[in-house]
Write a structure and sequence with these properties.
Layout: H1 26-33, E1 39-44, H2 50-56, E2 59-62, E3 82-87, H3 90-100, E4 112-116, H4 117-121, H5 125-137, E5 145-148, H6 159-185, H7 193-200, H8 205-225, E6 230-235, H9 248-268, E7 272-280, E8 283-290, H10 296-306, E9 312-314
Parallel strand pairs: 4-5, 4-6, 7-9
Antiparallel strand pairs: 1-3, 2-3, 2-7, 6-8, 7-8
Helix pairs in contact: 3-10, 6-7, 6-8, 6-9, 8-9
Length: 315
């Protein structure tokens, strides 16, 4: 999630010097942020396109689960894995989508905008204010809005339950993918990765089944809240990029907060686009829109229509 690489170094975040690029698709996002390429591919299992897109001030799309062919790619946790991409401009992002997206698009005019109030509450005040101001500026271009908690109080499971359930299922699938290699080759894993692999080796089938039940309920709940024609807005990440010098404890706290937001589209298999809406104290921050299954093209068109409103600064 941080983009810090213990083996090869950490890609520089040109638009937020001295801060992490976000990850795990850190190199791709950093390359776009540095204007070294027009677009770059990435992968997103738990937020690995959305978070670095926000931190590097670029556009990024996590597509509907299954809409980009993963043939030739290495699996990690297939229940959540998608391939997506970054770009500096929404037009190029949309043109790449015309090439990569497969299957049936579900095109529908956006008629309702849901503001995920509990997701906004997870973000730093300055980030939440930046996203809200952007939405206010786009009032004439956006449909009527309403606020709702996507994980309301009293719901059988909330953000932390969803995040933990994803952690368990992802760990089980990661171990099924990499466990034999790790056991036999004993590779030197970087800090953070080693501890998560150690945990993955201990996850039981019973734990996984319980977590899958939580995820199935959450998936049905979230998809019911986003029928064709309805999109949901939320901050992509709860903060600007943490400092490179941040402690391990601080980065773990950042990871937990961020997964509360990224788990929503991830567990529901929905498309989510990051729009670089401006900066906080000179560092990029992003607003996300989540759509219904197959709404990828609709979200790409929406980003193009809102592009001229980007660039707000919050001191």
């Amino acid at each position: 999630m941080s983009g810090v690489n213990a083996h090869y170094g950490t890609p520089p975040n040109i638009r937020a010097p001295g801060r992490i690029p976000g990850g795990s698709s850190s190199g791709s996002a950093a390359a776009c942020g540095a204007n070294a390429c027009d677009f770059a591919l990435g992968s997103d299992t738990g937020g690995s396109i959305r978070v670095p897109a926000s931190f590097n001030g670029v556009y990024g799309l996590r597509p509907t689960h299954g809409r980009v062919d993963l043939a030739g790619a290495m699996a990690m946790a297939p229940s959540f894995d998608v391939a997506g991409w970054f770009a500096n401009g929404p037009g190029i992002l949309r043109r790449v989508g015309a090439v990569l997206l497969q299957g049936s698009a579900v095109t529908e005019r956006i008629t309702r905008l849901v503001i995920a109030s509990d997701a906004f509450a997870q973000a730093d005040a300055e980030v939440a204010a930046l996203c809200q101001e952007f939405l206010d500026r786009g009032t004439q271009l956006l449909p009527p809005r309403s606020e709702r908690a996507i994980a309301p109080a009293g719901f059988p499971a909330g953000f932390d339950d969803w995040r933990e359930a994803i952690r368990v299922v992802q760990a089980k699938e990661v171990w099924e993918t990499f466990g034999a290699f790790i056991t036999q080759a004993k590779p030197k894993l970087g800090p953070g990765i080693k501890e998560r692999m150690d945990f993955a080796a201990t996850v039981t089938g019973e734990q996984t089944n319980r977590s899958r039940e939580i995820l199935a309920g959450a998936r049905a709940h979230i998809r019911a809240a986003l029928p064709p024609g309805t999109i949901m807005a939320l901050p992509t990440a709860p903060s600007i990029a943490p400092l490179l010098a941040a402690s391990g404890e601080a980065l773990e706290f950042f990871r937990v907060r961020t997964m509360r937001l990224t788990c929503i589209a991830g567990l529901a298999g929905l498309p989510q686009i990051n729009i670089p809406v401006g900066t906080v104290s000179g560092c990029p921050a992003g607003l996300s829109c989540v759509g219904w299954p197959g709404a990828d093209e609709v979200l790409l068109d929406l980003a193009c229509g809102l592009a001229h409103l980007c660039g707000i600064e919050m001191k």
